[in-house]
Amino acid sequence: MQQLNWLTKVSKKQLYYSLTAIVAALCIIGGMVWKEHRQTEAVADDITVVRTAVVGAAAATQGYTYSGEVRGRYESQLAFQVSGKIIKRNVELGSVINAGDVLMQIDPKDIQQTVNSTSAQVYSAESQLRLAESNLNRFRQLYEQGAVGRMAYEQYVSAYEVAAAAVQQASAQHTQGANQLDYSLLRADRPGVISAILAEMGQVVSAGQPVLTLVQDGEREVEISVPENRIEELRKAQQLKVTFWALSNVKVDGRVREIAPMADPVTRTYKVRISLLNPPPEMKLGMTAAVTLLGGNTQQTVSIPLAAIYQNGSMPAVWVVTTGDSITLRPIKTGQFGAGTIQVLEGLQQGERIVTAGVHKLNEGQKVKLGGDSL
């Protein structure tokens, strides 16, 4: 009976240990299966679906566009030749004027007094001249009669010459004063359009200070600003096309007429004047124009979406899909911007596939799943 009880106890222990071992084995196997499943999911998660496009190169001519303004070829800064206070302005901005029109006037009171003074000096000098002439005539007769000596006669001759010179001096001063009185009126010497008003009524201006800008009638041209590294290219330009923001359907040919010899001290660019070969009649002064420089070198270029650019410091780059559907970052050289696109000049070859979206979430060598169309 005791042996039977002992066997029963042993069997229960063996059964307990066996069950424990089985449960432990099942837990280990389940853990391994779960771990392998997790690793498979992690690997699957590393393969990112991206939007891609195949590069298709096209022949294009590289050009540059510069913004400018329609200007007159001849522009004059008008100023008074005398100083004074402006009392009248007869023109407005944009006024069309003719030669001889009075544009402005300064207060002529002081100048008028100067003219009156010089006029009185002329009358005085002329009176002295008449007296000297009468004395000379009388002493000439006395000298011829032998009543006076030659020395006395020559003294009156000299007095007459001095009086005549005084008349000339007073007349010149009077003429100068009269000219200054006329200079109090600012007149246009050529027909044109007033493009700027630099002084107003009540302002005291000095002689030579610009008060108006006159654009003379005649040729119109476009002024642009060009950086120094493009000057030589502009000199050798084969073709220039000029368009206008306000005239959408107008495009005219242009040529370089003048390049400034020195750069602007503020913008560090050179002023360039472009003559228009066949200017449209509806073109107005001050219109915004765009001058496009078309070069003669044709090269293979492609335009890619701006979203494909990965900015790595100062160097733009794109993600290129390599063999095995992995990606690598490649620097590129960019050109002109378009409507949501940018031109690539160097760095990409025809037939290569690039990532066009989500570029800042990718890593070097990462596996991707492809999608998208050709450019």
From TrEMBL:
The chain crosses the membrane at residues 15-34. It is found in: Cell envelope. InterPro entries: Beta-barrel_RND_2, MdtA-like_BSH, MdtA-like_C, RND_pump_MFP. Gene3D superfamilies: 2.40.30.170, 2.40.420.20, 2.40.50.100, Helix hairpin bin. It comes from the Bacteria. Keywords: Membrane, Transmembrane, Transmembrane helix, Transport. Residues 222-294 form the CusB-like beta-barrel domain. Coiled coil: none annotated. Belongs to the membrane fusion protein (MFP) (TC 8.A.1) family. PANTHER family: HLYD FAMILY OF SECRETION PROTEINS, MULTIDRUG RESISTANCE PROTEIN MDTA. This is Multidrug resistance protein MdtA. The lineage of its organism: Bacteria, Bacillati, Bacillota, Negativicutes, Selenomonadales.
